[in-house]
Amino acid sequence: MSAPAPAGGAETVVVKCGGSGALDVQRLCEHVAELTAAGRRLVLVHGGSAEMARLAGQLGLTLRQLTAPDGVVTRYTDAATLDVLTMALAGRVKPALLTALDRHGVAAVGLTGLDAGLLRARRKKAVRAVVDGRPTVVRDDRSGRIVEVNAALLHGLLAAGVVPVVSPPALAEDGEPVNTNADRAAAAVAVALRASRLLFLTGAPGVLTDPADPASVLDTHRLPPAGEPAPPWVGGGMTIKLVAAREALVGGVEQVWIADGGAARPLAAACGDGPGTRIVLPEPAPVGRTSP
Ligand SMILES: Nc1ncnc2c1ncn2[C@@H]1O[C@H](COP(=O)(O)OP(=O)(O)OP(=O)(O)O)[C@@H](O)[C@H]1O
Ligand SMILES: [Mg+2]
């Protein structure tokens, strides 16, 4: 998944644009224009749950969820849902970002994981999950985990002064598209590019110890040791975001931040010390004394 760091020493920052509607696209693009003009290499990766829900509603499709035995909730992506996901992300969210970037004078190229094999995934063939309250093995879910990123393609665009704007779906081993979580896609892209920072812009000002109270935002959130559950106040889409944050840090990304997508200068944590929550790996376990 890794590729040589780009020539010239410019640091790459990957920004996951989420926020379920809370993202301020104009402010984001204004800030992207400023940072790219100053020579920073930026890659945007976007989700779009709010737009997907809106489109599904317009088409009369009910979106469903899978709850894994460990409690992590993901999208149940049957063929119709994959169609809606692709139409919402590639047909609505991405064009909105590209036109706003263009208005701010930023040259950007929109890509899904299908373009030049940008995101290759291994499809989850049988998913053990609780569906509508019943434990089930789901076999028609079209989602997967990213196993390869075409980093050379992104480096080529960055070297040409272009901002890549990336989203699911990804390409599975059978040549068909699969859904892949956008937070984890952003982490995979950041690792593959050897990015110095990964910034998740979302609908909260960072990690909150009380999700109902924005004032409870943490400056730093230390992840629990691998295999241990997240604190009870972490829920919803934040659970998988912290999984993605861990993957990025373990993969060598120096700094991972979660910050407010509606802020006046949303990319502040891409080059400074917040505002937002910096995510850090657990302290290494103390080396135990060996008995004589
Ligand atoms: N402890 C917590 N701290 C902060 N946010 C939390 C916490 N627990 C749950 N959340 C919820 O998680 C949300 C972020 O995840 P969500 O999936 O909704 O957005 P996103 O990933 O930014 O956007 P998208 O899914 O559209 O890409 C927050 O807006 C908040 O509602
Ligand atoms: Mg999300």
UniProtKB/TrEMBL annotation:
SUPFAM superfamilies: Carbamate kinase-like (SSF53633)
InterPro entries: AceGlu_kinase-like_sf (IPR036393), AcgluKinase_fam (IPR004662), Asp/Glu/Uridylate_kinase (IPR001048), Glu/AcGlu_kinase (IPR001057)
Keyword field contains Phosphoprotein: no
A GO term, aspect molecular function: acetylglutamate kinase activity
Domain Aspartate/glutamate/uridylate kinase, first and last residues per copy: 12-260
Pathway: Amino-acid biosynthesis
GO biological process: L-arginine biosynthetic process
UniProt keyword terms in alphabetical order: Amino-acid biosynthesis, ATP-binding, Kinase, Nucleotide-binding, Transferase
Recorded GO CC terms: cytoplasm
PANTHER family on file: [LYSW]-AMINOADIPATE KINASE (PTHR23342:SF20), N-ACETYLGLUTAMATE SYNTHASE (PTHR23342)
NCBIfam families in alphabetical order: argB, PRK14058.1-1
Name of protein: N-acetylglutamate kinase
Organism per entry: Kitasatospora viridis
Lineage, uppermost ranks: Bacteria, Bacillati, Actinomycetota, Actinomycetes, Kitasatosporales
